[in-house]
Amino acid sequence: MQQEIKLDPLTASSSFSQWINKNFKFLPPTFITLVLLVGQITYGILDSYLNVVVAIATCILAELILARVLLGQWKNIASSYMTGTSVAMLIRSTVAWPYFFTALLSILSKYVLRYKGKHLWNPSDFGITWMLAMQSPSVAGLSIQWGSNLAAVSVIWFLGLIVVNRAKRMHVTIAYVISFILLAYVRCLITGDAFLAELAPLTGPMYQLYIFLMITDPPTSVSTRKGRIIVAILVALVEFVFRLNNFIYAPFYALFIVGPLTKFIDLKWYDKTVAK
Asked: Which of 30, 40, 167, 250 shows a CA-CA span of 20 to 30 A to 19?
């Protein structure tokens, strides 16, 4: 007689948690690759595969060279791969040069704009914001090139939540999303737009990268949980102001301003606390 095998849910959950802990370094790159693939296969968000190669290759090569020359070390390419993939997805152009310069600016910001040995800006946000602010006719940001495929979005959110939970940044994502929803309601009262229309960006790839990888970026986050929650709320508030003034790329501008300023203050405050 064949013996019946019963699975203990607690054991299965523990095994899954152990697997996540052991392989977490592969999870963020897998997450961002999944967003890219889903967006391209389902909605064709990319202008050219060549642009993806240019952005990723530029980030990886720049990271390897700058880390070796300036810091005397070889860097893991996971971070630069994620920056390059973000650049490839979040800007749009029919030519390759914007992808090269955006990727290069992103990585340069990590090694040039530093304080106390830390970089202040999220790399991809820095490069993308500067490129979009230049208002070149050759460059635009990813915006409406996405649909509302619930199955695809659900998978991406599931994996994204695992990433931020493991990185101990779930509170940042939650604080920002709640703030965004509340402020979206305020915006619809002010502008008369539909509430669901104001919420729609949260389902797109830009915001999935934004809330799971950009505002939660550990190297550019402040040092305390309470501080990170406050920063997330501040980012949402500044974005709210930009949106009211019809800035299309409001989230990038908001993080560009709030992120480095609060990181700088945090590092200064930490130095004073240690001195005492």
From this structure: 40
